[in-house]
Amino acid sequence: MKLLFLTPGTGSYFCGVCMRDNALVRELLRQGHDAILLPLYLPLTLEEEAATPAVPIFFGGLNVYLQQRFPWFRHAPAWLDRWIDHPRLLKFLGRFSGMTQGGEIGALTLSMLQGEEGAQERELNKLLDWMRSEAKPDAVWLSTGLMAGLARRIQSELNLPVLCSLQGEDSFLDGLPEPWRKRCWEEMESRCRELSSLVAPSRYFAEVMERRMNLVAGRIQAVPNGMSLEGFGVSLEGSGVPTIGYLARLSYGKGLGIVVDAFIELRKRKEVGIVRLCCVGTMIAADAPFLSELRAKLLAAGLENDAEFHPNVTKEEKVARLQGFSLLSVPAIYGEAFGLYLIEAMACGVPVVQPRTAAFTEIIESTEGGVLLDEISPDLLADAWQDLLLNPEKARALGEAGRRAVLRDYSMRRMAGHFLELTQNALLKRRASETME
Asked: Three-state DSSP class for 218?
């Protein structure tokens, strides 16, 4: 069985979905299966070696944009088409990803969801030709519902099952202006109904997307994200200065502002003495103004030397920082579909403190690796941090429980097993349907 995974590349910054997909394909290859990870739009930016590095990039970001803006470009000569899809050019353009806004990105999103009816039909033809002649997969996995527009022709012309993992589509689509928001939701719902299987990384998000896309209960299966445990572990060095940790995109939506306010509040109290704040994660150009505001707030509080921000770090540096955390909090203010950062922290024996919202409840209740807060505010977050810092045995017990659970339930090997089983079921259903016909 040969599997093809299609994932959106970012070009310049680490993306949790890309890294998850890369780790999944690496695990499948390690187990002896045949799998390909194919980037769309931009090159992949990864913490680890690419699972399948010698593959082309389809739906090149510049090509997709130009075909959307200028209809005549859909018939550009082949030499120009190849030039603007060159990986080096796409890597350079990745620095500016995220700069397309508003109606422009809404129209482009809708066009991609429309697939063969959208402005990028030529790109879809190129992908299908490559799949026929080179990849020749038995099944295709889409890493986001925003790619569902590709499925109709893949299923009809290549007679392949197309499966899809959902994560974070709601917050993206809800951020689009009208009329694009409504039209994109309607198109994604229509296209997702045609897919062989839909999965979400938590029961919470599966139920959210079933409601949002008017699907019957149980249509979306919950398959928790796994992680490659290689390199993650509890630090053997003694603890230094207590450190509050944050690991996620350095942005407003992930609750970084609440973390900084809670840190300032904790330091005002003086009960726990010197405590540091260390924030690690992806950062794009659009995040810079917000980070500047937080630095100014820490400066005004006299804590500028006790807080660190480390954007776009390597995996080795990320693990090293994690192992130095006393605890971790990422109080995302939107409905987080999963939260791989919690699993990564627990893999290093770090307890977590999170709001009782979204997927956080499932993860922490199943692992017993942290504390859930019924309400979230800087004061309440500081209270919970203070309790753990003043009770190291409690913090250590939570950290140990979390690590045991991650090893047991959140390994990439376990996730790969779920994906293989779902793929095999989809293939059996398709063959049974063909037999009946």
From this structure: coil
Q: For residues 273 and 392, what is the distance between their CA atoms, to the nearest angstrom?
A: 14
Q: How far is CA 265 from CA 245, 258, 275, 306, 385, in A?
A: 15, 10, 11, 13, 11
The phi-psi region of residue 87 (left if phi > 0; otherwise alpha if psi is between -120 and 50; otherwise beta) is alpha
- pLDDT value for 319: 96
How many CB atoms are closer than 10 A to CB 116? 15
Phi, psi at residue 125, to the nearest 5°? -60, -40
Q: Are 115 and 124 in contact (CB under 8 A)?
A: yes
Residues 384, 419 within the same domain: no
Question: Do the beta carbons of residue 249 and residue 282 sit within 8 Å?
Answer: yes
Burial grade of 63 (CB within 10 A; 0-12, 13-18, 19 or more): buried
Q: What is the band of 99 on the pLDDT scale with cuts at 50, 70, 90?
A: very low
Residue 55 has phi, psi (to 5 degrees) of: -130, 155
State whether 19 and 127 are in the same domain. Answer: yes
Q: Do residues 123 and 86 lie in contact, with contact meaning Cβ atoms separated by under 8 Å?
A: no
Q: Which domain holds residue 272?
A: 243-409
22 near 44, Cβ under 8 Å? yes
**Which region among 25-29, 42-46, 102-106, 269-273 has the lowest average model confidence (pLDDT)?**
102-106
Report how far residue 280's alpha carbon sits from residue 283's, in angstroms, rounded to the nearest whole number.
9
Say how far apart CA 167 and CA 173 lie, in whole Å: 12
Cβ(206)–Cβ(222) under 8 Å? yes
Digit-coded pLDDT (tens) for 72-88? 878 888 777 777 776 66
- 97-106, 306-315, 358-367, 385-394 — which is least confidently predicted? 97-106
Query: CATH number of the domain that 385 lies in?
Result: 3.40.50.2000
Structural tokens at position 246: 């944050």
Top-confidence range, 46-50, 82-86, 397-401: 397-401
With a CB cutoff of 8 Å and minimum separation 6, the contacts of 108 are 64, 65, 68, 100
